[in-house]
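quick one, 269 residues, struct below
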Amino acid sequence: MIEVKSVSKVFRRNGVTLEALRDVTFEVGTGQFTSIIGPSGCGKTTLLKMMAGLIAPTSGAIEIEGEKVTGSGPDRALVFQHFVLLPWADVLTNAAFGLEARGVAKSKREQIARAQLEQVGLGGFEAHYPHELSGGMQQRVGIARALAVDPDTLLMDEPFGSLDAITRQVMQRDLLKLWQETAHKTTVFVTHSMDEAALLSDYVVIMDTRPGRVAQIIEVPFPRPRSETLTESSEYREFTARLSHQLEKMQRVDMERETTQEAEGSSDG
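---
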């Protein structure tokens, strides 16, 4: 279980203070898939980096299975939006990189990496280099690398955000299939896509901004296992429309707030 407990984050740079997150609290149950959605600037990526142990909260705490997160650890793996592959290394070496960093012997890590590449549909591409792969294939390598270390918790920061629409749909469905066929790893998935959140998640955390905070937590009503045809149902379309409405409402409030602040600033001048 991941417990986010009254987490706030303030950045201070060059005399400027930015309150990125304020009093964020929610839980992700063990084996659950939770998506975080919200407007740009609401602190989604900051929150994920804190779960990964890459940055620390200003106040509050994040606990995973009862242990406070104080740094990165082998129990977590992070998949980024941008592929972050080693351009000089072949696919097999890239997929095995996390295992190599943990001191796993070459024969063992290559065996594990080959199995994960097969799992994500890249069997036979072990000797290729990143520049020889499409964007979707490069992201598959990133997912294989994350899964190869067998983390308890998978943290994904808009992993399909830079892909074209068709490739993104394919990757969403492949991830759904992979997650359902494996051990249902505890997953936190940052996205801007309501469709993506509805298809993949058990719960959706909707964030508001300025500063980032939890506006609403919604349980996804669709039973598992989910099929690819779910997206064609009226229930799915109604649910994604509900998520879109919530985000649009928050964005309108933000725009009105900005307009008011700008008007007050002008009158003070």
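Residues 87-150 form one domain.
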